[in-house]
């Protein structure tokens, strides 16, 4: 029987691919030895083959839980993106230049495998060193509808990852866990290469800033959980082992968000408490902006949850994280903001 599309090809409609179901076709997150070899071939490299550390501090183990939680989401995101790009009718994901499409497909295929190896490495640390269960996949949702919006989202969450992994390295050093610093440093470099490629695809210069914006594990975990995880879809007994306190939802309520034009401006935010209650009066609250490696900037929120974004004074390009606190600080760094935060992070991109 002829299909409708074979009879009327010009009416073919694009239906975006859904985020993948786990386990993937290669068995990830529990691939067989043969499947792992295939993943390493696609990733153009292998898992580290040296011995794992003999022990890690509890907070270092929590950091590896957040790393695994993030890497699994990234596998889901890029798998969905690849499916949309390579669909028979790719719609708004179409790349009309054959050479460009070939490079994009090769790149995303390698990125998926590399993220799978990042996740598997973190899971090995959790199960063998920390004696914690491996982090299990959730179901995911991504508010993108075309190639450019997907690449912009990938660039934004990679910006958060880069800031978070830098903070994680500092934590490992403070915890006297030096054996895991170099492997995480290598991931920072790899993620930076990815982000430069994403920015180039968007017509931007590859490097956004001289000193990338700092973040924290609490902000990264909240950003993933709030924006990309289908509520209630994570195996709760597994999800509850991640010892990261939740934050209320902070949404940048501006056209085109998270991308803003450069310049001083007033920003509107929407706040929702952890229990689901909307905040209608922001008078007793402050928004704190984290940009680059600078001291966080604190601005009072109006009763209508609006605050100044002082772009010009601080050259606030690239990623800015916004969080809401019930005190004016001052805050020394991103970790101090994360410890005091009630809501966040809202993600802002200028550049």
Description:
It is a single chain. The protein has 351 residues and is α+β, with helices and mostly antiparallel strands. Helix 2 packs across helix 4 (98-129). The chain is 43% helix and 12% strand. A hairpin with a 5-residue loop joins strand 3 and strand 4. The chain is globular.
Please give a handful of descriptors for the protein shown:
351 residues, alpha+beta, four-stranded antiparallel beta sheet, three-stranded antiparallel beta sheet, 10 helices, 7 strands, 43% helix, globular, disordered N terminus
Which structural class matches the secondary elements?
alpha+beta
Q: Return the average pLDDT rounded to an integer.
A: 94
Main sheet characteristics: 4 strands, antiparallel
Quaternary state reads: single chain
Shape: globular
List unreliable stretches of 5+ residues.
Answer: 1-12
Q: Using only CA atoms, what is the Rg?
A: 21 Å
Helix count?
10
